[in-house]
Amino acid sequence: MKIVVTGAAGFLGKRLIRALLERGSMTDSAGERRPIEHIAAFDVVPLEGIDDARVQVSTGDLADPAHLERLVDAGTHSVFHLAAVVSGQAEQDFDLGMRVNFDATRALLERLRALGQRAKFVMTSSVAVFGGALPACVDDSQVWAPQSSYGTEKALADLLLADYSRRGFVDGRSLRMPTIVVRPGKPNRAASSFASGIIREPLNGEPAVCPVDPRTVLWLMSPLRAIDNLIHGHELPAAQLSAGRVINMPGLSITVADMVASLRRIAGDEVAARIAFTPDPAIERIVNSWPGNFSARYARSLGFVHDDGFDSVIRAFIADASTVAA
Amino acid sequence: MKIVVTGAAGFLGKRLIRALLERGSMTDSAGERRPIEHIAAFDVVPLEGIDDARVQVSTGDLADPAHLERLVDAGTHSVFHLAAVVSGQAEQDFDLGMRVNFDATRALLERLRALGQRAKFVMTSSVAVFGGALPACVDDSQVWAPQSSYGTEKALADLLLADYSRRGFVDGRSLRMPTIVVRPGKPNRAASSFASGIIREPLNGEPAVCPVDPRTVLWLMSPLRAIDNLIHGHELPAAQLSAGRVINMPGLSITVADMVASLRRIAGDEVAARIAFTPDPAIERIVNSWPGNFSARYARSLGFVHDDGFDSVIRAFIADASTVAA
Ligand SMILES: NC(=O)c1ccc[n+]([C@@H]2O[C@H](COP(=O)([O-])OP(=O)(O)OC[C@H]3O[C@@H](n4cnc5c(N)ncnc54)[C@H](O)[C@@H]3O)[C@@H](O)[C@H]2O)c1
Ligand SMILES: NC(=O)c1ccc[n+]([C@@H]2O[C@H](COP(=O)([O-])OP(=O)(O)OC[C@H]3O[C@@H](n4cnc5c(N)ncnc54)[C@H](O)[C@@H]3O)[C@@H](O)[C@H]2O)c1
């Protein structure tokens, strides 16, 4: 079986590929379990640090149609589409965001439609599709009202995936992800970048800036659970997806203050003291438009998982950092 | 002031142009009332039957970018974008629907963005964006879950219009319209075509087929109210649009059986007896996925109007048919 992963060199992409290699087999759209023979890992930057004959690395701009025909072919059973321009960048460069987050997704779906094999297509949406007046706990029936271009592009992609699945062009599943923490490495241009930064930087002995109020409620998931859920989302039989293809993931609802308290518990006062609270109105506007809690009833009924507490999220990050390169 | 109307030769387009000519002036995005000097009426078929020096008729495919530059220019203050492929046709021809209902809308928005004058942009969405498990009365917070490609395309356009407005590229307003009845002329390829047909054909002495159960609840608006609301939606100051640019219109919630009873009251038993109930599963599937009732709280707070009862809708149709050509 051939699996294509876009955004393969990214935070989730790299972890997903490691997990797929470890599993060794996956279920195709006909429900048959097949050994994973090829993983086509595509990104603008080359995937490094994975040495396995099953992985073919290629690079390019996914929004350039020339790459698609080579990447996705008649032997492709599944696509994990993770390539994206992050929220902060999509807000600054509208055309880039639309081209990568929407047009490239559409081109991928069109390519799969043309091939006609109804491949599995798993992608990651975001809580940034929500906004406006929101209840304290967002239900699956909550309307989408994005307050950013990134959120708009994710919602556009969700609608397309749903219709391409309904028409039988692909077997799509869009997992609407919480903010994934703790992300290793450097800060990125996502508006949510600080959510990892306030844990990661202090643990690395560096200062961190928190641009939002400590009372801000975030909706989080650890990278471990995110990968579990991506694989689960792929494996679920289409017949179980009775309430649609776009699924609000379960998560952990927590205030920034409680995240800091957790860091203090695990790493001590000196580490927690490395966080400075300096409000940034541009980031606050975007982050405050995202819900901090979801019922995620549909996802729970389908068996998607969530983290039990933030202490274990930090502990997993510390353990991960000592074994996996960022 | 120059106003562009796409879909100008259509049911609503033609009526809107007549209403604009009669009004003589409209409010621009700066809030200034200006005389209507030009109406650029665009459609694939030529607009006929309106003889007024202010109206310039041109024809072409809106999805062909060549037309846009001529049609929409630096002098354009407002666009009423009504051109669309109807639901039944968009379901049969996926590519055509995407091209006209989504790509052409996007191209229009892009053209206005490039011109940079933040023109008013009014378009018509549809209750076909809703589907799946729905409460008896749909609230403004209800998630969109289209069960047709037409509904998907309308939702895609709604998301774009909202983000283009948020970014200040245009001053957009999308009115989510009920099914408009009674439509004169011939049946069309909308799944809702029967809703007009079961009134129009019997009144014209012809047999009509109703493809859905008489207990089916429909969400309706008369063409008179639709035009009032299109003009009201244009005139509303942007500052009042506190809960967004996509607005579920108020309407009339009525069963097919009550529509027939109304026809019987007004035109007699013999006329009502011309309706045969012959279920069509393809149409039933689409129509039953649409909600039959909405709270439309936001729209009501903004002053949008609805019909008080179905008898007056039928009477208005009879009066209209005797004065206006279809
Ligand atoms: N990490 C989160 O908190 C989070 C939350 C919700 C949704 N998501 C979504 O999950 C997916 C993966 O997230 P991540 O955290 O791994 O992001 P990431 O930024 O680490 O990885 C994305 C990858 O996409 C690649 N990419 C960007 N543009 C490309 C293009 N034009 N062609 C090819 N590759 C391109 C980047 O080089 C990068 O390696 C994204 O779609 C993201 O929007 C992430
Ligand atoms: N009538 C309804 O019940 C209803 C309900 C909800 C929404 N709407 C929407 O309101 C708008 C107007 O509806 P209507 O009932 O007047 O429809 P209509 O079919 O009578 O008019 C649409 C017009 O668009 C034109 N058109 C189609 N493709 C075109 C293209 N590629 N380029 C240029 N013109 C093109 C058609 O020739 C037609 O004259 C549409 O967007 C429709 O989706 C209508």
From TrEMBL, chains A, B:
Keyword line: Carbohydrate metabolism, NADP, Oxidoreductase
EC number: 1.1.1.410
Keyword NADP: yes
GO MF annotation, one: oxidoreductase activity
Annotated ranges, domain NAD-dependent epimerase/dehydratase: 3-207
Gene3D superfamilies membership: NAD(P)-binding Rossmann-like Domain, UDP-galactose 4-epimerase, domain 1
InterPro entries: DenD (IPR050005), Epimerase_deHydtase (IPR001509), NAD(P)-bd_dom_sf (IPR036291)
NCBIfam families on file: ErythonDh
The protein's name: D-erythronate dehydrogenase
Lineage of source species: Bacteria, Pseudomonadati, Pseudomonadota, Betaproteobacteria, Burkholderiales
